[in-house]
Amino acid sequence: MARGPTYRVPFRRRREGKTDYRKRLKLLRSGLPRLVVRNTNRNIIVQVINYHPNGDRIVSSAISSELRKLGWKGSTKNLPCAYLTGYLAARRALAKGVKSAVLDIGLHRPSKGARVFSALKGAIDAGMLIPHGEEKVPDEDRIRGKHIGDGVAKMFEDVRKKLMETTEG
After folding, report:
1. Fold of the domain built from segment(s) 17-165
2. Which of 5 and 40 is assigned the larger pLDDT?
3. pLDDT of 169 strictly over 70
4. pTM for the whole thing?
């Protein structure tokens, strides 16, 4: 460990490996809200967050386990579920007046066809304006769950129709 009078201890969240402050600063300089997508061991969390000097403010939020109320019976951590969760969070944000955002995937590595980009596609399909590259977004068959099975694809369409009918989610 470095020593001496000029040594500066990094911020706690940097030491814990939770925050990349350079990346965060670039996202905040855009002046737009952030569409934050996080994967946990069981769920996918999508939030629309505004910056505030005293602490960020969450505008809208959705977690994949909420889809169970709408008839989702499959896994809450796969691509179709990520899409629907992004769609739900974006619908809630649009209801509160947020029309555009930037994607914040945190420390997640941006690999082609990942769940974070499936959630991004859901938010874009809901009507939000988010800058992105089409090469990272998974193809439609994978988003709809056809690679998992026909039952998942049908369940996906049923839940998506229910989400389209509701304005608040």
Report:
1. Nucleotidyltransferase; domain 5 (3.30.420)
2. 40
3. no
4. 0.89
